[in-house]
Amino acid sequence: VQLQESGGGSVQSGGSLKLSCAASGVTYSRYFMGWFRQAPGKEREPVAIINSDGSTTEYAGSAKGRFTISQDNAKNTLYLQMNTLKPTDTAMYYCAVAEEGWWLLSQPPDYNYCGQGTQVTVSS
Question: Tens of pLDDT along 11-48?
Fold first, then answer.
């Protein structure tokens, strides 16, 4: 399994970013994909998950109402649209694959595979 994130960058508070994760080699018949983040000196924190057919999404408290997870199965790509960004959203963002959704929503998140991450920096 290979996961490659992109789309991170630096934005001002209140701005938006859309992260992408190109996935390949996922062969589970049923799985979840999601995003988690980690800021320097802090524990990994769940962000959002989506199941393999896109029928179920769940968000961690910090992401609810501001972030939207989606996927394009034809392109094997996972997305995270982030709006109304805050300085507290500054972190490395990782996409991950897990056989169970609750793994990705656990604190800290657990998973089968994750990517190298993409940095998001929000300035005030």
Answer: 999 999 999 999 999 988 899 999 999 999 999 999 99
